[in-house]
């Protein structure tokens, strides 16, 4: 006979000891607790057959404890016996039965009576469990036999239906494959177009921001003029933020993937997300603490979460809940996802939802169902681009009137090394700006960008010269001319800035070179990993910093 667990709850150790002495003849497992908190700890960790509770306890009386125990689904039918050190009136007994007790043992306690009552309930618990086991076995046998009989009958039906099923399946797979191919081609085409537009727009913003900042420095002391120029600069900077989202969709942003603990990342941004959605929306989360690390750019993942939460907020005009969940993804993988281990991160809302036509276009840039001035249509585009560029995928499921779920499938960081405590690096000496005018060659095929960069350099006191292409830059050096520094655009027709840099490094190993570009596209240019780069649009201060770094030897030659 297997012993069962009996929980004894009393705040007085002497009384617990007396119960233990009385009940030790039963050969059951006796578990003692001196407070309601300790009792609940045992209840949550252990399967309890019978509970003995003292009525009078200082912090929480037995009636309150029994009422709380009965609220737990596992202990709604567990026998609970009140043990009272004082004689109880009939109303007290009725109150005990009302909260869920099944029996009373009052003073003076008769050991034989207490043992008998506990034995009855312990045996009842054992027999109940045995009966449940026998019923489960019987049901399993009946189910097995029924399944065998049904399998024999179903086998014939399956043979008759198999051919038709295969035809339907192949037809459906072909239609789904064609639809997925069309969608992939459409998004890829939009991505190429978007990346090109973002690149050209960055060049325009480069010229606008550079000129506005220089103009601001030259304006007379006029508050109205300064306010107008500042407003124009802020508008151009908002344009820069839009191009970053476009580049994310086009998969041309520069990512820094690393092993990311999503549980900790969400804890760090939860306050920010709560402020973004507002007090009327509840944030719920289901993220296991032992979740495997993700291989992703943590900053971009935080931005993606912010975009998803803002979309959910806009769908919950009257309030509601947003739920974020994360789990190891094993089934129901999106089509085209490469093999390997993935984590599925889902952000769900119980808002108005979308119809199928809207879902099919939700990830397209600039597509939005929000009113004028309420959205750019780039949030889901950015999330889609991040997932694809990180080696994962995105799924959007929505039901009109019930809500939307956006799921990110991101790869697991297979080789994960737990981060060591950061060691403060020694303070670096501040870079010393150039003390003399420098001869600088500016290479860019866009005349507006070239003019703006030259103007910023002249404003800094340097002597810039211009080249509209890489070949013209090579002619500059072939003619015997020289310079102290080269600043070159990367995406140029004929020869890219990276190719120009390789030619110049071969002939002039010590020549400082800065690569500038409207989007991240250096991954294929092997050998230039450590070359100094600038992202367009850049400010005069950023240009000065890059020049100081290049000229101080902080960036080694590739």
Automatic annotation (TrEMBL):
It comes from the Bacteria. One of its GO terms (molecular function) is ATP binding. Its EC number is 2.7.13.3. It catalyses: ATP + protein L-histidine = ADP + protein N-phospho-L-histidine. SMART domains: HATPase_c, HisKA, REC. Residues 5-122, 439-551 form the Response regulatory domain. Keywords: ATP-binding, Coiled coil, Kinase, Nucleotide-binding, Phosphoprotein, Plasmid, Transferase, Two-component regulatory system. The modification 4-aspartylphosphate is found at residues 54, 489. PROSITE patterns: HIS_KIN (PS50109), RESPONSE_REGULATORY (PS50110). It is an enzyme of class 2 (transferase). Residues 196-414 form the Histidine kinase domain. Residues 121-180 form a coiled coil. SUPFAM superfamilies: ATPase domain of HSP90 chaperone/DNA topoisomerase II/histidine kinase, CheY-like, Homodimeric domain of signal transducing histidine kinase. PANTHER family: C4-DICARBOXYLATE TRANSPORT SENSOR PROTEIN DCTB, SENSOR HISTIDINE KINASE. This is histidine kinase.
């Amino acid at each position: 006979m297997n012993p069962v667990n009996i929980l004894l709850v009393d705040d007085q150790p002497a009384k617990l000891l007396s119960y233990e002495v009385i009940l030790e003849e039963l050969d059951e497992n006796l578990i003692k607790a001196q407070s309601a908190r300790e009792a609940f700890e045992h209840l949550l960790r252990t399967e309890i057959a019978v509970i003995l509770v003292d009525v009078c306890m200082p912090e929480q009386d037995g009636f309150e404890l029994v009422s709380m125990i009965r609220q737990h689904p596992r202990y709604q039918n567990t026998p609970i016996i009140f043990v009272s050190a004082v004689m109880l009136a009939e109303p007290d007994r009725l109150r005990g039965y009302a909260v869920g007790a099944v029996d009373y043992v009052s003073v003076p306690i008769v050991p034989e009576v207490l043992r008998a009552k506990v034995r009855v309930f312990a045996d009842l618990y054992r027999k109940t469990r045995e009966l449940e086991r026998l019923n489960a076995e019987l049901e399993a046998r009946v189910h097995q036999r029924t399944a065998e009989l049904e399998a024999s009958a179903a086998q014939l039906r399956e043979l008759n239906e198999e051919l038709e099923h295969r035809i339907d399946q192949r037809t459906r797979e072909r239609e789904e494959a064609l639809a997925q191919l069309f969608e992939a081609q459409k998004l890829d085409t939009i991505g190429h177009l978007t990346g090109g537009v973002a690149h050209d727009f960055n060049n325009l913003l480069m010229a606008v921001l550079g000129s506005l900042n220089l103009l601001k420095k030259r304006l007379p002391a006029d508050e109205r003029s300064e306010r107008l120029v500042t407003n124009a600069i802020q508008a151009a900077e908002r344009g820069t933020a839009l191009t970053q989202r476009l580049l994310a969709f086009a998969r041309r942003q520069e990512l820094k993937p690393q092993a990311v603990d999503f549980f900790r990342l969400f804890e760090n941004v939860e306050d920010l997300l709560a402020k973004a959605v507002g007090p009327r929306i509840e944030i719920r989360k289901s993220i296991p603490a032992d979740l495997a690390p993700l291989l992703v750019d943590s900053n971009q993942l935080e931005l993606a979460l912010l975009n998803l939460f803002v979309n959910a907020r806009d769908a919950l005009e009257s309030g509601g809940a947003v739920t974020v969940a994360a789990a190891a993804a094993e089934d129901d993988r999106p089509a085209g996802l490469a093999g390997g281990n993935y984590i599925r991160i889902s952000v769900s809302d119980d808002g108005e939802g979308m119809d199928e036509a809207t879902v099919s276009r939700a990830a397209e840039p600039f597509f939005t169902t929000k009113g004028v001035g309420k959205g750019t249509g780039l949030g889901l585009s950015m999330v889609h681009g991040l997932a694809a560029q990180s080696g994962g995928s995105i799924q959007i499921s929505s039901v009109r009137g019930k809500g939307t779920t956006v799921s990110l499938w991101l790869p697991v960081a297979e080789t994960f090394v737990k981060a060591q405590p950061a060691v403060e690096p020694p303070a670096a000496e501040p870079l010393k700006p150039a003390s003399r005018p420098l001869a600088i060659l500016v290479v860019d095929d866009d005349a507006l960008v070239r003019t703006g960069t030259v103007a910023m350099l002249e404003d800094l006191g340097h002597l810039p010269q211009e080249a509209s292409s890489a070949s013209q830059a090579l002619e500059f050096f072939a003619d015997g001319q020289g310079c102290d520094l080269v600043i070159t655009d990367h995406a140029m027709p004929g020869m890219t800035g990276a190719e120009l840099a390789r030619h110049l490094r071969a002939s002039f190993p010590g020549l400082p070179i800065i690569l500038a570009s409207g989007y991240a596209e250096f991954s294929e240019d092997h050998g230039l990993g450590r070359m100094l780069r600038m992202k367009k649009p850049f400010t005069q201060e950023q240009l000065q910093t890059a020049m100081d770094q290049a000229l101080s030897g902080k960036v080694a030659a590739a």
